[in-house]
C-alpha cells in the first residue's frame, strides 16, 4: 500500500486526485493540505510514502515545503509543475524532490509515477527532466558543487552515474554496459551511498553540478 498526502491549494484538484487514488488498488490517501506549511505538518505526523506537492501555494510554497520535508523525514516528494514554471523544477530536485509531473498529465501516468517514486527505481520523465536540468545548470548563476565530491567514485561508477543522469533505467544501463541488471543496481546503489544521495533525482543533479555531465550545446 502506497500512502499519499495531497498538497494543492485548489480543493477540486485535491478531490480529483483523491478520487483517482481511492479507486485504484494499492493507494491510500492519508491527508490533504492546502498550503506548504500544512503539507510539512502532515508529512511529519503521518509519515506517508509520498507527498504530491504543488509548487504555487499561499504562505509556504511547494519548493520550501519540499526542502523542509526531505530534511526532516524520509518521505519522498513528487512535485507538480506546468511548462510556464519550468524554473522551479531544478530547485525542487535540489531541494530533495524525487521527481515531478506536469499538471496536465494523464491519470494513468500519475499512478505510474507514484509507483516509480515509491520504489525509488527511476527518475520521472527523464527526457523532460534532462532538458530542464540542462537548461538551468547551464546558467552562470547556478551554484556548482566541488568536483572533488566524486573522488571516492570509481571510473565504472562515474560511467554509471553519467548514464543515470542521461535518464537510463537500471535495465538500460545494464544493456549499455553489457552487464547484468543486478550489477547495474549494485553500481547505482554504491554511487548513491558514496555521494549521500537519497535517490536517483539527486544523482542527476550531482552529475551536472560536479561537471561530470555537461549541458548540450545549443
Automatic annotation (TrEMBL):
CDD domains to which the protein is assigned, alphabetical: LuxR_C_like, REC_NarL-like
Residue ranges of every copy of the HTH luxR-type domain listed in the record: 146-211
InterPro entries reported in the protein's UniProt record: CheY-like_superfamily, NreC/VraR/RcsB-like_REC, Sig_transdc_resp-reg_C-effctor, Sig_transdc_resp-reg_receiver, Tscrpt_reg_LuxR_C, WalR-like
Residue ranges occupied by any Response regulatory domain in the UniProt entry: 3-118
SMART domains attached to this UniProt entry: HTH_LUXR (SM00421), REC (SM00448)
Keywords in alphabetical order: DNA-binding, Phosphoprotein, Transcription, Transcription regulation
Top-rank taxon, per record: Bacteria
BP terms from Gene Ontology: phosphorelay signal transduction system; regulation of DNA-templated transcription
GO MF, one annotated term: DNA binding
A Pfam family annotated for this UniProt entry: GerE
Residue list for modification 4-aspartylphosphate: 54
Stated name of the protein: DNA-binding NarL/FixJ family response regulator
Lineage: Bacteria, Bacillati, Actinomycetota, Actinomycetes, Pseudonocardiales
Amino acid at each position: 500500500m502506497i500512502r499519499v498526502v495531497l498538497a494543492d491549494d485548489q480543493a477540486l484538484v485535491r478531490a480529483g486526485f483523491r478520487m483517482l487514488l481511492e479507486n485504484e488498488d494499492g493507494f491510500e490517501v492519508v491527508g490533504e493540505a492546502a498550503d506548504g506549511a500544512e503539507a510539512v505538518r502532515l508529512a511529519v505526523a503521518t509519515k506517508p510514502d509520498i507527498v504530491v506537492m504543488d509548487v504555487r501555494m499561499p504562505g509556504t510554497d511547494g519548493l520550501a515545503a519540499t526542502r523542509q520535508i526531505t530534511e526532516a523525514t524520509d518521505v519522498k516528494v513528487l512535485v507538480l509543475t506546468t511548462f510556464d514554471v519550468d524554473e522551479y523544477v531544478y530547485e525542487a530536485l535540489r531541494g530533495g524532490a524525487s521527481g515531478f509531473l506536469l499538471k496536465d498529465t494523464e491519470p494513468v501516468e500519475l499512478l505510474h509515477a507514484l509507483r516509480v517514486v515509491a520504489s525509488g527505481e527511476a527518475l520521472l520523465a527523464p527526457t523532460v527532466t534532462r532538458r530542464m536540468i540542462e537548461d538551468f545548470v547551464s546558467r552562470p548563476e547556478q551554484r556548482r558543487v566541488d568536483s572533488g565530491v566524486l573522488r571516492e567514485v570509481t571510473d565504472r561508477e562515474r560511467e554509471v552515474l553519467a548514464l543515470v543522469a542521461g535518464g537510463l533505467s537500471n535495465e538500460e544501463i545494464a544493456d549499455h554496459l553489457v552487464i547484468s541488471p543486478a550489477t547495474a543496481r549494485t553500481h547505482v546503489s554504491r554511487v548513491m551511498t558514496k555521494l549521500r544521495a537519497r535517490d536517483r533525482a539527486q544523482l542527476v543533479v550531482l552529475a551536472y553540478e560536479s561537471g561530470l555531465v555537461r549541458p548540450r550545446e545549443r
